[in-house]
C-alpha cells in the first residue's frame, strides 16, 4: 500500500513516557518545566530513546495529575509557554526523536470554560458538550473506574440542577463526543499540536470515549467506532506518519476492534501481554506467557502493540482470575498498602523485585524482545522506587532522580516547595539511585539499559518482523524467534526462574547451527556459534542473531 519504513517508524520505536512536571525544574520553583526537559534531551537521546510520550501538560487544576484538562490548546504556565514547548519539539526533532502527547478526549476538568458554560444554563451553547440527565440515576457504584474513590458515574450539579456523566472522578465530566460540535473542537486540538511539532497522541481512556452511555438515542447517534475513524482521518490528513497510541484495557476480541483493520488506532498498549507477563514472572514459569500470547489478536499491517512492564498507573490485574491475581499480589505486593482499587499494585518494578538486578535485567530484556514496540516509564532505566505515602497511583510518579545532590538534582527549590516529594531515604532514595552515579559506573543498570536498547535497535525483527514462540524442554524458559522479510532472524531466550536450568531450543537445524550471541547475561561471551543446548543462570537470558550481525 505504498507505505515506506519511515512511515512505520512507530513499529520499531523506543518509547519513553515522562511527565514534564516531575522531570527537571529549570527555574527553581519546585515544578518541572519544558526548559528543564529540553536540557535533558541529550540524556534521552544517548540512552537510545526515539519517541518521548508526554503526560498531560495543559492548564489544569491538577486534581488527577493533569488528566483533568481546563484548556486543550495551551501549556500550563507552571511548565512554561507555547514557545518553550515548540523549542522542545524542535530540539527533539533535531536529535531524531519524536514526541507524542496525551490527548484526553473523554472528559475535561469541571473548571474547563465549556463545563462552566454548560452548567450555567440549559440554553448554553456548551450544554450538549456534556452528558446530562434530570432523573435520579440510582446506584451506579458498580460502574466506577476507581472503586473506593468514587461513588458512582453520575453526579448532581447544583448550578445545572441536573446529573452529569463522569466515568472517572467527579471533577472530570465526560464530553459528549457524539456531538459534532465537540468533534469539531477536538479536530482543531489535534491539528494544533501536530502543527506545533508532535508526531501523534496517546489517546486516554479510548473505550470510554465511544461509550455513549446516557446520550439520548436520537442525539447524533452513529456507529461508535466511526468517531475514531473520523479522528484518525483528521490525524492522517494533517500528517501522514502521525500516530495514535490508544489506551484500551479490554479482552482480546474487543481490543482488536480498535485497530479497525488499519483505519483506527495504529498502536495499542499491550495490556494483554502485560498481565500474562506479570503472572509468568510471579510463577517463574513460561506457561502463563505462552497461553496469554496465544490469545493476542493479529495486528493489521500498519498496526503494532506497545509492550510495557510498568507505566504511570497501577499494575491493573483485574482481568486475571482471583487465584491468579492473588499469586501476583503474593509475589510482588502482599501488603495492602502496596495495592489499590482492590485490583492493582502501585509499585515500580525495581521494588517489586526487591532490587534484584538479575531479575530486572531478565524482565526488561524479555520486554524488549516481545513482538512490538517497547516502552519505558521514566526512571525505570535507573531502577527507581516509589513513595507509598502519596495517594493512589501518585506513588510511582515521584520526581526523576538525577544526582545525589539537593533534591536529587531535580530542582533547587526547598524540599517543601516541590510539586511532589522526592524518594529521599532508603535503598531507592536519590542518594543511592541516580543518573550521575550510574553514568559513572560502567556496570550500572543505566548503562546496561543503554546496551539493551542498542541491541534492540540491532534487531528490527522484534518490531517489524513476525514472532513465534520456540518450543523448549524447560518450563521456566520463554524463547521466541522473530523473522523479518529481509531474511533476518533473531532468537531471544529468557529464564523466568531464579533456578538455573539447561535448555534445548527446538529450531530448524540450519538455524540451530548458526546462533551467534548478540546480547546476554555474563554467561555468553563466545564469538563462535552457540549450540542449541546450553545452560542458563537463574534469570539468565540470551539473544541470538542467526548467521551473524547485520
Ligand atoms: C487513564 C490515565 O492513564 C489515568 O492516569 C487517568 O486517571 C485516567 N485515564 C483519566 O484520564
Overview in brief:
This protein has helices at residues 34-39, 41-47, 82-94, 113-120, 180-195, 206-209, 224-238, 252-257, 271-283, 287-294, 322-332, 349-352, 357-369, 435-440, 445-457, 461-464, 509-512; strands at residues 15-18, 51-54, 98-103, 132-133, 154-157, 162-165, 200-203, 243-246, 267-269, 304-307, 315-316, 339-340, 344-345, 373-377, 466-470, 477-483, 489-495, 501-504, 515-520, 533-536, 541-546. By secondary structure, the chain is α/β, with parallel strands linked by helices. The strands form five sheets. It has an eight-stranded parallel barrel, surrounded by five helices. The protein has a five-stranded antiparallel sheet with strand order 15-16-17-21-19. A three-stranded antiparallel sheet has the order 4-6-5, with no helix packed on it.
- Taking all Cα atoms into account, the compactness measure Rg is 23 Å
Q: Identify the overall geometry.
A: globular
Q: Mind telling me the CATH class of the largest domain?
A: Alpha Beta
- For the termini, the CA-CA separation is 27 Å
The appropriate CATH architecture of the largest domain is Alpha-Beta Barrel
